[in-house]
TrEMBL record:
GO terms for cellular component: nucleus. Keywords: Nucleus. It holds the Pfam family Fungal_trans_2. This is Transcription factor domain-containing protein. GO terms for molecular function: DNA-binding transcription factor activity; transcription cis-regulatory region binding. InterPro entries: Fun_TF (IPR021858). It comes from the Eukaryota. One of its GO terms (biological process) is positive regulation of transcription by RNA polymerase II. It is found in: Nucleus.
Length: 450
């Protein structure tokens, strides 16, 4: 099992001597930071002491005192009103919007993470330079405190440290100058322990942090077509007593599909087992979790229109997207004569027939995933959709539909602040590659053990 933090190592890079000797994952969070009360230096930039003092950023050492600053109070409120929603996807208790801010009133680590993320969100959605400076200042304080944590601290056991790292993960995605995978690697040692779920109540902050970490890990894996950083087969499946458990259970299934397929370990029996898991999930899906209204067709339109899917809850939409992206990956890795084994996700018509082409099937899945994202148009669903769109979008062949997806993605920048330009560029590159190599569309597919 990975260590909680890499404090006892000899600081060798990229793997410390202690981890190399024991064969464990070396979860080095960051290179060292230096900062005073009003300045810090990092490997990604710096905020001078003079500039910080001029702006009079309150120290996060006492969050309640810092919140007496109207500017800081506003950033704190903005977190509750906007970014917190991303983390409460599938959480009926809304812990990241309620319990996390309450804990942050007396916890400098969590407070710094909240203000840093919120200010970066404001910076990206409004192009505010003062907000960028605030974000960098509190980000530096947060990272410094993370590095100082030891393995016995209560912050590791109560989920505060994991919650802070999840917030920093989003900060670094929004801040394109920082490696977006850096804190995801650091969070691995906090989230991959079996007590993240098994020994924690379902409604605990530690469990909520785990599900957020796992979704963030899935997003990165879908962008990069690489395995997750943890073996989700060891995670305990939820009991499916509530609607939100449908999202959690499909998240675990998707994690297994990703690890097997992107790790090129998917044999034919393994492929059939994963297909069966998705089929079972679809068969047990309660009717209220399915869309209550939908377009009649999900086939490409000459004018680029995307199909509409309406759901009762945001996490219902995300659960269906995860099922679709799992099927997309399984279809991409399936031999042509096995496509008919894939379950249909349509209630009113059979989507898959014996003579269906792989390209048509992949495009249909992709269009539905995009349609769900932009019909729902809720920040929590949009943020969770970028990974699936990054992977499946390359299978869209209709030029009109491609342009509509780009238009819809561009509109997301103002509301959520994500670097959608990078996603759009990646999709355009893949479509250009398809023109140069028609087989890129997935018609052939990688097949088993490729």
């Amino acid at each position: 099992m990975p260590r909680a933090l890499n404090n006892a190592g000899d600081e060798a890079t990229p793997v410390c001597g202690q981890c190399r000797k024991s064969g464990r994952y070396c979860a080095r969070l960051l290179k060292s930071f230096r900062f005073s009360a009003y300045s810090y230096q990092s490997g990604t930039g710096s905020l001078s002491k003079e500039a910080a003092e001029k702006r009079q950023f309150p120290s996060p050492e006492n969050p309640r005192d810092a919140l007496q600053s109207p500017d800081v109070a506003w950033y704190f409120h903005n977190y509750i009103a906007e970014p917190a929603k991303w983390y409460d996807l599938g959480d009926a208790s809304r812990l990241f919007a309620t319990w996390v801010p309450e804990l942050a009133l007396d916890e400098p680590l969590l407070f710094s993470a909240i203000v840093a993320l919120s200010a970066e969100h404001v910076s990206q959605t409004t192009k505010s330079k003062p907000a960028k400076a605030v974000a960098e200042f509190y980000h530096g304080h947060c990272v410094h405190r993370l590095i100082q944590l030891d393995e016995k601290t209560e912050l590791l056991r109560n989920g505060v440290a994991l919650a802070a790292v999840c917030l920093l993960r989003s900060y670094e995605i929004l801040n394109e100058d920082i490696d977006p995978n850096r804190h995801l690697q650091g969070a691995y040692s906090l989230a991959s322990c079996e007590d993240s779920i098994a020994a924690s109540p379902p409604g605990s902050l530690l469990a909520a942090g785990f599900w957020n970490y796992l979704r963030e890990d899935i997003t990165f894996s879908l962008f990069e077509s690489c395995p997750l950083k943890m073996d989700v087969t060891m995670a305990a499946a939820p009991s499916l007593t509530g609607d939100q458990d449908q999202l959690h259970s499909m998240t675990l299934i998707l994690g297994q599909v990703i690890n097997k397929a992107f790790g090129y370990q998917i044999s034919e029996p393994e492929w059939e087992r994963l297909v069966s898991m998705v089929q079972t999930w679809l068969d047990k899906l309660p009717s209220n979790v399915k869309p209550f209204s939908r377009s009649q067709s999900v086939t490409p339109s000459a004018v680029g229109e995307l199909p509409c899917f309406w759901f009762l809850q945001d996490f219902h939409a995300s659960a269906r997207q995860y099922a679709l992206i799992a099927l997309t990956i399984l279809a991409a890795f399936a031999p042509l004569n096995q496509l008919s084994m894939l379950p249909s996700v349509c209630d009113d018509a059979e989507l898959i027939t014996a003579d269906v082409s792989k390209g048509d099937l992949l495009e249909t899945y992709a269009i539905e995933i995009c349609g769900i994202a932009f019909t729902t148009n809720i920040p929590s669903v949009l943020v969770n959709s970028f990974g699936p769109i990054a992977y499946c979008g390359k299978f869209i062949r209709s030029e009109a539909t491609r342009q509509e997806v780009i238009r819809r993605l561009s509109a997301c920048k103002r509301s959520v602040g994500w670097p959608v330009e990078r996603l759009i560029s990646s999709l355009k590159d893949s479509w250009t590659a398809e023109l140069e190599s028609p087989s890129f569309s997935g018609e052939a597919g990688p097949g088993f053990g490729s």
